[in-house]
Amino acid sequence: MSTKRTLILDKEQIRQKSIRIAYQILEDNFEETSIVLAGIADRGYVFAKRLQQILAEIAPEKKFELLKISIAKTKRSLDATADEPLEIAKDKVIILIDDVLNSGRTLAYGLGLFLDIPLKKMRTAVLIDRSHHQFPLFSDYYGLKLSTILKEHVDVVLEESDGTEDAAWLS
């Protein structure tokens, strides 16, 4: 693997893209009074918390509930849990959130948690969409769509989880 790293998003760009995604979520769900943000641990959950804060600032009349989805990403079968009962999502709009969409496996596993819950609608939001989809899942809201080769790696650094300034790197 190459040791060369290229900055693809800095702190300010991540902030701007997060705000844009929040507005897109509101525009797509303007009639909803309550939206559930389901963030995939770890960085997807951090990103979901940020989106929740932005959404609460720009639409204080709406309720934005937060779920933390923990997934065993290395397993070949669904092994996922949520920090709250999934029934809070019943008959509501769910936004499934992660930092990077690569193959779609992680989002597919996240979706699997909600298969037995009647939902109004489910959408996906990611900071970076790499377009290497192996599953029929795509990002409804994304900050950056990036064409990369399979050997390249996208690393998102978020201050809350990594202890260093926000950035996204391609290596």
Automatic annotation (TrEMBL):
This is Phosphoribosyltransferase. InterPro entries: PRTase-like, PRTase_dom, PyrR_bifunctional. It comes from the Bacteria. Keywords: Glycosyltransferase, Transferase. It comes from Sphingobacterium deserti. GO terms for molecular function: glycosyltransferase activity. Pfam families: Pribosyltran (PF00156). Residues 8-154 form the Phosphoribosyltransferase domain.
